[in-house]
């Protein structure tokens, strides 16, 4: 157990292994049934799922990552997250209190989990999108300041508004499960090579290349904040795009071009389904060739629908 974000007003929850095993069993059922109807889903990432537990009256959030057969690989993945979290805090970012935990399953697999508190809806940054758009909203000002001060070109955060709490006029990040780090040439480091090892040989280079292309956009402040605006379009919050863009551009050395936002959105509309199709091929290979369960819940990147 490793606690990060210890100074957060949102404290990491206390969860014992027996309760975490119940969460894991419920998620494994979702993967088998390709349905999350029995879960209190709070987020479906590209390789993760976040659920409130217990389902009926959630007490904490469990974000579950890829299970691995080798405990050393699993620990390296968990350690990479802790190191990434420390880098964010060292750069001036704030994190929601999080317990980074490894669950050891009876079948020998080891599952990294991020355990976090239930943040009140009123403190979720995404709720501001329900209001009428305003110029110079302090949350978007703070987002610009965070993106431009955290990191030195060697790491970056994912500045999507739903990844934050907004409390006491400060942003608190709770989605940092994918360490975005880059080498001296600006190339994305695939911190989770252990996960790629589970892929069929023919899919490894294709999927790694597609993932690297996505994360390249987060390296510079202008590119990262362009992704913020693209995500607003993805969640039908288009009316906030122009006010947020103006707020960012008053401060950025390299301004965001509105046409670039639209072009990147259209590119993601085309490319994300292709990545999900690769994931579905991988699932078929795992289940039909290797005869073992597939450990992801594959979802549509725009609608959230389980595929």
Can you describe what's shown?
There is one protein chain. The protein has 307 residues and is of the alpha+beta class. The chain has two domains: 2-117, Phosphorylase Kinase, domain 1; 121-289. It is built from eight helices and ten strands. The protein has helices at residues 17-33, 71-90, 138-149, 193-196, 204-216, 221-234, 241-249, 258-289, and strands spanning 2-4, 40-44, 49-53, 60-64, 98-104, 110-117, 155-156, 164-167, 170-173, 180-181. The chain has a six-stranded antiparallel beta sheet with strand order 1-5-6-4-3-2. Strands 7-10 form a two-stranded antiparallel sheet. It is globular and about 55 Å long. The two termini are 33 Å apart. 31% of the residues are buried.
- The overall pLDDT average reads 86
Cα shape: globular
Helix content: 25-40%
Number of strands: 10
Structurally, how many domains make up the residues? 2
Strand content: 5-15%
Number of helices: 8
The strands making up the biggest β-sheet line up spatially as 1-5-6-4-3-2
Estimated radius of gyration: 19 Å
| Order of secondary-structure elements | EHEEEHEEHEEEEHHHHH
Q: Return the structural class.
A: alpha+beta
Largest sheet: 6 strands, antiparallel
**Low confidence ranges:** none
Termini gap: 33 Å
